[in-house]
Amino acid sequence: MIGEISSIIGLRVYTDEGRYVGKVEDLVIDMEKKVITGIAMVEYNRTLIDKRAGVILPYRLVKSVGDIVIVKDVFRKKKEGEEEQD
Q1: pLDDT tens digits for the chain (86 residues)?
Q2: CA 47 – CA 77 distance, rounded (Å)
Q3: Could you write out the three-class secondary structure of 56-74?
Q4: Could you list the residue range(s) of the whole structural domain that residue 15 is in?
Q5: 6 by DSSP, 3-state: which?
Q6: Count of structural domains within the chain
Q7: What is the CATH number of the domain that holds 37?
């Protein structure tokens, strides 16, 4: 199982609509239940995610994992001229 989990690290994350979301840096694991609960991302798409610090995407949004990670597209596009918020 460890080999399978470590193979996710570094994969690029895209929505099911084909938009780039980010790159997997780490996984959040619930050790009691032995399940992955989140994906910690770096190099994320700032037009989709309005954060300046790290991002953890809930694992329930993951649709498939292979050469890339595909997640459900739940992101709202920023409107032109919209300011970033902290």
Answers
A1: 455 778 899 999 999 999 999 999 999 999 999 889 999 998 888 888 777 777 899 999 999 999 999 999 887 665 545 554 43
A2: 6
A3: EEEHHHEEEECCCEEECCC
A4: 2-71
A5: helix
A6: 1
A7: 2.30.30.240
